[in-house]
Amino acid sequence: MEKIPEEVVQFFIGQSFSIVSTVDKAGFPHNACKGIVKLSPGGEVYLLDLYRAATYHNLMVNPSISVTSVDEHKFKGYCLKGKAKAIEAKDFDAKLLKAWEDRINARITQRLIKNITQEKGHPRHPEAFLPKPEYLIFMQVEEIINLAPHQLRREG
Known about the structure:
Blueprint: H1 6-13, E1 18-23, E2 29-34, E3 36-39, E4 44-49, H2 54-61, E5 64-71, E6 76-88, H3 94-117, E7 135-146
Antiparallel strand pairs: 1-2, 1-5, 3-4, 4-7, 5-6, 6-7
């Protein structure tokens, strides 16, 4: 398991969502938007998944996973690669569910602020209609890829 530098932990926590990639039984990639609930410097990533669909089924046959986030404005991004497993909702810590609820509330608040101060976005607040997570994705990071061009990695 690879340690995750604090800068990378803070980057992912600062993103509203990440792209999670898994591989189906035919070998094709599947991408889905997911929110990271917790990311530890020790190399553990926790994501709550709202639906028991393609990502879940892919993890049952192939534990390989990647989690990618980018910040277009800062021209910065990372991809975490590793192995994951699904943990049923009844078996994970209630603190993780509370952390997910806090992140959803923060996203709703940010959407309200943007709607007031900037151009209107979605006419509703879709986060308010999301179901409770069905399971937890627990990932152990094996590799971290810096997606920024080499010449820009040392700049702010």
